[in-house]
Amino acid sequence: MAKYKKKKQPHEMASVAEVAKKQTQPSSQPQTGKNTPQLMTQQRANFALQAVQDAIANPSIESKEFKSQVRRLPGMLQVNGFGQAIAFYYAKGKSGKLPACGEVYALLERWLCEKSPHSPYRGVGAAEPRLLTAITSADQQAYRQAQAETQALLQWVKRFCEGLIVKEDSEPREET
Length: 176
What we know:
Elements: H1 10-23, H2 40-57, H3 63-80, H4 82-95, H5 99-115, H6 130-137, H7 140-164
Helix pairs in contact: 2-5, 2-7, 3-4, 3-5, 3-7, 4-5
């Protein structure tokens, strides 16, 4: 009846270190000077920042409308479902009625079909619209994983929209 844990031998410790090293997945993103891969949240944040800056720089998209559509999407995902919400944003953007919806759809398509290293839709065929094609042709596990990845990315996009797209007040506030 041993009450104490067996102390690991040096050869056992090396194997644990090797396993940990194998589990670390290097990213395709630029690395820091320490040769450490970026965390998934860092990759999402980097992509989200770039996407928001691109949307702000695009003259055909009204920044406030983009911010509004980004803020609406997580609720739509919960109420209507992932596929239906994405199809809605695609349709509104394609029709030209709401170019901001098209921009939100495009950034999700780029992330889920091209940039995200852990997306189940990465490398989907060239059939347009790629994201909708992937959603309708993949299995349930891929659908759920893509929905979770979308929600995680949208948290960053919303944060950057809040910080970079300033609400313009018509009148300056006076303190009382």
